[in-house]
Design goal:
Distance between the termini: 60 Å
Strand order of the largest sheet: 2-3-1-4-5
Helix content: 40-55%
Number of helices: 11
Structural class: alpha/beta
Strand content: 5-15%
Number of strands: 5
Shape: globular
Largest sheet: 5 strands, parallel
Radius of gyration: 23 Å
Length: 274
Amino acid sequence: MSKSPPTVVRVKKKVYEAELARLQAELVTMQQWVKASGARVVVIFEGRDAAGKGSAIKRITEYLNPRVARIVALPMPTERQRGQWYFQRYIEHLPSTGEILLMDRSWYNRAGVERVMGYCTSDEYRRFLHQAPLFERMLVEDGILLVKYWFSVSDLEQERRFRSRLNDPMRRWKLSETDVLSITKWVDYSKAKDEMFVHTDIAEAPWWVVESEDKRASRLNVINHLLSLVPYEKIDPPKVHIPPRPPASDYERPPREENHQVPDHAATLAKPTE
């Protein structure tokens, strides 16, 4: 466990916002290339609880087309899914041509929370460590670009983020009993991660560690790195001609009073003009 958190040089807000906007524009360019080229991209986000995976995914997808860039965050498996091959329920979400899949947690649940919390047997765990590299090599061999990120954060910063969520109505839903156990099982999760890396950090799909003590820096770093891994080129979208609007000589809108109008709540907040 950390005796003191890593030294963090925080990016100034204006610098962060300007660079984030630039990178997000590049993500849109990358998206155009993925769609036009028929590429298939899978990006896995794993790491400590409260390490900033969700906020990074949010910034990546903010301006992307949800029909091209999809987020998958699977719930607990159903009884039927528990009887399937472990990877089976993930396969149906893999991208088709021209699609990007971002996985908020993935099949690596088995090597992390399932292993630490005892939700899988030792045989199931060992089988996963053997099969995961084989499965991922098949994906890469079939032409999928597979990128795996591990978000790292110190125990002190993780606890600080947990406590900040307690009284925050916007983020309280992110805090569960399982999350809180990350504090008492910190070493167990560390050992599970280390062993997972030994077996699954393969040349075809290596693990990339994102230092996330500062969320601003981690977002910029992961987006910049992802862009560097995708061999995209700038593809200008087809020009769209906006025609002049013809006169609506044969149409008259019905009175608004005939419709069910949403109450103007905003008007109650507006200050009267002096």
